Amino acid sequence: MEYLDPRDTIPHEDVVLNKVKDAIISVKETKSIMPPIVDLRTLIVIDGHHRREAVISMNFRKIPFYLVDYSKDEIIVGKWFRKVLHSKLSSLFVSSLKRVGDGDLCMRFQSISICSRNVYSLYWRLEWLEERLRGLGAKVDRDPVSGEEPPELTKAEIIRVAKTGLRFPPKTTRHLYNFIIPKLRVKL
């Protein structure tokens, strides 16, 4: 664990403002934080984007981070499968679509082909579709085991996107660790 300025770390995912607000409340109430996880070479945030944004908004200059070597095989990029419970309206919407986007990289989402030229924009198209479905009354959840399978992401792609200053949609990546990272809050 090392204390770093959270502004020096590089996010690879966008955040949900309500989750940032929840993280702010948690930090204020407990005066502690579960340290975000960052790559020791690139300072790319691997886990803890909402906590990072919370402490930045609270003007913290140094907070604890767990530093890990992202290049090691002990860190795996997993997937968040999508589970959809449709409303009548969202079901009609899906049945009216055949294809979203253009490009050679495609994934199936129920009866729809979501396509793009790269994995970054493909994930944003998937996010767009999920938001439309939620707006039509569907429930879209992330599941670690089953559901609609998103495209594979590599560490290299995550690093490339983060270094360009872009961000994947919230909760795109799911990192798994073949070592123990303490789940302890650290006083601030």
UniProtKB/TrEMBL annotation:
Key words, A-Z: ATP-binding, Kinase, Nucleotide-binding, Transferase
Domain of life of the native organism: Archaea
Domain spans labelled ParB-like N-terminal: 2-83
InterPro entries associated with the record: ParB/Sulfiredoxin_sf (IPR036086), ParB_N (IPR003115), SerK/SbnI_C (IPR023098)
Molecular-function GO terms, alphabetical: ATP binding; kinase activity
Name of protein: Putative transcriptional regulator
Species in which this protein is naturally found: Metallosphaera yellowstonensis MK1
